[in-house]
Amino acid sequence: MYHDLEAYADLDVQFHLQVVAATHNTMMHYLISSIRASLKNVIQEGLRRTQTRKQLEEMQARHEEIANAIERRDAQGAGCIMGHHFDGAVMKFIKDSAHQELAPSG
After folding, report:
1. Cβ atoms of 82 and 66 closer than 8 Å
2. Rounded distance, CA 106 to CA 103, Å?
3. Coil, helix or strand at residue 64
C-alpha cells in the first residue's frame, strides 16, 4: 500500500520530535530523541499493519490537527489531540499484537 515506509516513518518521527520541541519540555525531547530508532520501527510496523487508505488518511488528519493547534498556540487543544492520537496508536498496537498472538502458526 505504501511506496516508501522508511521515508514515511522518518517524516513521522521528525513530526513527533517537532511536536515535542514545541512543548519546550527538555526532558520529553531527550526521551523521544533517545528512543528515535525504536519509535521509527514501531511506526513502520504500524504502517505495515494499516489495512486501508482511510486509516492512513485518518492518521494524517490527526497530525494536521495537532500541527494546526500548535500553529494557533492552542497548547491545551494540541495536547488533547496528541493524547487521542497516542491512545489510538497504543490501542491499535495492542489489538494488532493480540491478533498476531492468536493467529494460527504455520
Report:
1. yes
2. 9
3. helix
pLDDT more than 70, % of the chain: 89
Q: Which three cell numbers stand for residue 1?
A: 500500500
Whole-angstrom distance between the N-terminal and C-terminal Cα of the chain?
25
- Tens of pLDDT, residues 31-83: 989 999 998 988 888 888 776 788 888 888 999 999 999 999 998 999 899 88
Element of type H or E holding 25: none
Report long-range pairs for 6-9 (Cβ below 8 Å, ≥24 apart).
Answer: 6/44, 8/43, 8/47, 9/40, 9/43, 9/44, 9/47
Domain coordinates in residue numbering, the chain:
5-102
Question: Which residue from 92, 101, 84 is spatially nearest to 52, judged by alpha carbons?
Answer: 92
